[in-house]
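User: Sequence recovery, please. Input:
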């Protein structure tokens, strides 16, 4: 399969304060399971899916990512020096200022089946995000996407008129949608006087009013994010055994 997306952005600036006992002060994307880090696994799967360049947005303990990227082909690092006082959209904005073509955006702390990449890269929609069925993992971001088009997202399930899945943290952006997100971010900063904007519940939702963003539902997708010790245990015990050592899938 010929991939039309060749670049990926991994958001990895956060401090992961709720995981210090697990990560030993490493960025949470570099936590290892079976001797492979979360970001290392993502880079491996992205390469297998046809992604040629990876940009990692660092912040907390950025030197750890410098060691990770050392000697790796086409892995670039950019730094959000203000990671402690800004939101994830500020980190994404730094990367989008440098990437002017179609790109995938991934979070650093997720473990997922490779078919999520296959689905979003082979789809016709230039702007899309992957959603799953209910995982029961806790701290979910719920998605309202009537007729398969993103409309709203919230961590408060009952704030939405309907729920069609969980946000996974794998998104595809065209250059025009990326530009719209940058404009939305700058407007947010001008209006609020700070940059504590989330890229998904704020940024994606803001541009969804103008750009059709497909919500690609993979009902049975096995995946997990790691924000705290309970989620770490779930990924180690349930998710990693199912997806950790599998070769990338070629069908959805």
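Assistant: Recovered sequence (252 residues):
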């Amino acid at each position: 399969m010929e991939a039309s997306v060749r670049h990926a952005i991994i958001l990895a600036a956060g401090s992961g304060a709720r995981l210090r006992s697990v990560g030993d002060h490493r960025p949470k994307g570099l936590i290892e399971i079976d001797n492979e880090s979360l970001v290392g696994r993502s880079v491996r799967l992205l390469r297998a899916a046809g992604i040629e360049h990876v940009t990692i947005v660092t912040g907390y303990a950025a030197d750890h990512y410098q060691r990770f990227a050392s000697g790796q082909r086409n892995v670039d690092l950019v730094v959000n020096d203000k990671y402690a006082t800004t939101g994830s959209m500020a980190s994404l904005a730094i990367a989008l200022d440098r990437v002017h073509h179609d790109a995938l955006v991934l979070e650093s702390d997720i473990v997922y089946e490779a078919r999520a990449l296959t689905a979003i890269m082979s789809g016709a929609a230039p702007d899309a995000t992957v959603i799953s069925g209910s995982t029961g993992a806790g701290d979910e971001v719920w998605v309202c996407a009537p007729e398969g088009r993103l409309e709203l997202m919230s961590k408060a399930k009952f704030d939405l008129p309907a729920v069609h899945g969980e946000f996974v943290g794998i998104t595809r952006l065209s250059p025009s949608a990326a530009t719209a997100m940058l404009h939305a971010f700058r407007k947010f900063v001008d209006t609020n006087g700070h940059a504590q904007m989330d890229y998904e519940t704020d940024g994606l939702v803001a541009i969804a009013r103008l750009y059709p963003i497909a919500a690609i539902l993979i009902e049975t997708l096995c995946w997990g994010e790691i924000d705290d010790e309970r989620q770490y245990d779930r990924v180690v015990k349930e998710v990693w055994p199912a997806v950790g050592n599998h070769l990338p899938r070629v069908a959805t």
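The chain has eight helices and 13 strands.
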